[in-house]
């Protein structure tokens, strides 16, 4: 029997995917959606992956570098990161973000199995 299309965030295990980055991950056939709470001062080092990524700040300020450009993201703007472009960032304040990845992140799916 298929799962209901209606789900609850409380049913999703929170996982620390990087120091200070606490995620609830949702996977569809084509996307991974990452709801993240980040503690002020925590960073994700510069990295790249095959996935296109859209990053949205829901609360707080997050300084993001994409390629050679750096900007502070707030709830008034967002970032679209092309496939294989180097990026990373630091939480200026405690913040909540949503990242959407296309295609789905197989490495993050493995985290749900742990």
Gist of the model:
The protein has 114 residues and is mainly β.
Which terms would index this structure?
114 residues; mainly beta; six-stranded antiparallel beta sheet; four-stranded antiparallel beta sheet; 6% helix
The portion of residues forming beta strands comes to over 45%
Structural class estimated from helices and strands: mainly beta
The backbone outline, from C-alpha atoms, is globular
Provide the helix percentage: under 10%
| Number of H/I helices | 1
The span between the termini is 24 Å
Low-pLDDT regions: none
Order of helices and strands: EEEEEEEEEEH
Largest sheet: 6 strands, antiparallel
CA-atom Rg in angstroms: 14 Å
| Quantity of strands, as a count | 10
Average pLDDT level: 94
How does this structure look, described?
- The chain is globular.
- By secondary structure, it is mainly β.
- The chain has one helix and ten strands; from the N terminus they run E-E-E-E-E-E-E-E-E-E-H.
- It has a six-stranded antiparallel beta sheet with strand order 1-2-3-10-5-8. It has a four-stranded antiparallel beta sheet with strand order 4-9-6-7, with no helix packed on it.
- A hairpin with a 2-residue loop joins strand 6 and strand 7.
- The two termini are 24 Å apart.
- The longest helix is centred in the last third of the chain and has 7 residues.
Question: Which secondary structure elements does this structure contain, and how are they paired or packed?
Answer:
Layout: E1 15-18, E2 21-27, E3 32-38, E4 43-47, E5 52-59, E6 62-66, E7 69-73, E8 78-81, E9 87-91, E10 95-102, H1 106-112
Antiparallel strand pairs: 1-2, 2-3, 3-10, 4-9, 5-8, 5-10, 6-7, 6-9
